[in-house]
Amino acid sequence: MTATDLVFVYGTLRPGERNAHWLAGAQHLGPSVSPAAYTLCDTGPYPAALPYGHTALVGDVYAVDATTLADLDTLESYPVFYSRRVIETDYGPAWIYVWAAMRKHDWPVIIEGDWVRRNTRPAIN
Hints:
Layout: E1 5-9, E2 27-33, E3 38-42, E4 47-55, E5 58-64, H1 66-75, E6 82-89, E7 92-99, E8 109-110, E9 123-124
Parallel strand pairs: 1-7
Antiparallel strand pairs: 1-5, 2-5, 3-4, 6-7, 8-9
């Protein structure tokens, strides 16, 4: 990727969510939907996108500089809890953080893939 990376965010970094301030200096390119290749789990305080499944994730794409990307790596505990992969978005290739640690079996699955609407849609265990 270039000096300015794109990042696809699907959870607490999305606009209006509690960690959105981490992207205050980044350029919000707009909403996007990932390929249908994930399982989105609700861990309680944050989501975990498992790198397998058939769910498309609803999110947003940001252009970030190297410092912001490094800050996001710290926030996401990369590479301990999350790993980074590149996905195709409406704005070009972007990083996505996917869960790399052990999944807890009691995490509900957000079947629509939209963390922001998790409380308005049914989840399954």
